[in-house]
């Protein structure tokens, strides 16, 4: 059974940082591209970033380029999203997903950026 469990969300002030983690189980983690998506209230879910199986290729939404970094630790079945210089418009529920486009989802973790 595929499971993706996100953690690390919370409340942050503008300009601060958060690091999200997603622990995967139930499939061969190292064989899949992994991605992060987000969904803000009243908006559609959008891709934030993805990383290929060995981490050699990453890609980011224009809105987060230069501020967010996706990485992975295959030995730990974990994918990360380091979020720096947070802005209020980054407020959303962040979802870890297997594949790109995503075909399995975690429950999400809330990120709120507010002063």
Word description of this protein:
The protein has 115 residues and is an all-beta fold. 0% of the residues lie in helices and 50% in strands. Strands 2, 4, 5, 6, 9, 10 and 11 form a seven-stranded mixed sheet that branches. A hairpin with a 5-residue loop joins strand 9 and strand 10 (104-105). The radius of gyration is 13 Å and the shape is globular. The mean pLDDT is 97.
Sheet with most strands: 7 strands, mixed
Mean pLDDT: 97
Which shape, going by the Cα principal axes? globular
* C-alpha Rg (nearest Å): 13 Å
Element layout with pairings:
Elements: E1 3-7, E2 10-12, E3 18-25, E4 34-39, E5 46-51, E6 58-60, E7 68-73, E8 78-83, E9 92-98, E10 104-105, E11 109-113
Parallel strand pairs: 2-11
Antiparallel strand pairs: 1-3, 3-8, 4-5, 4-9, 5-6, 7-8, 9-10, 9-11
């Amino acid at each position: 059974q595929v499971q993706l469990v996100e953690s690390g969300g919370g409340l942050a002030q503008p300009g601060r940082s958060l690091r999200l983690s997603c622990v995967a189980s139930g499939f061969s983690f190292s064989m899949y591209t992994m991605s992060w998506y987000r969904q803000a209230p009243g908006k559609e879910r959008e891709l934030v970033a993805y990383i290929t199986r060995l981490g050699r290729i990453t890609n980011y939404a224009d809105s987060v380029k230069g501020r967010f970094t996706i990485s992975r630790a295959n030995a730990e079945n974990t994918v990360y999203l380091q979020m720096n210089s947070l802005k209020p418009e980054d407020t959303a529920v962040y979802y870890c997903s297997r594949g790109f486009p995503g075909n399995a989802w975690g429950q999400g973790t809330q990120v709120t950026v507010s002063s």
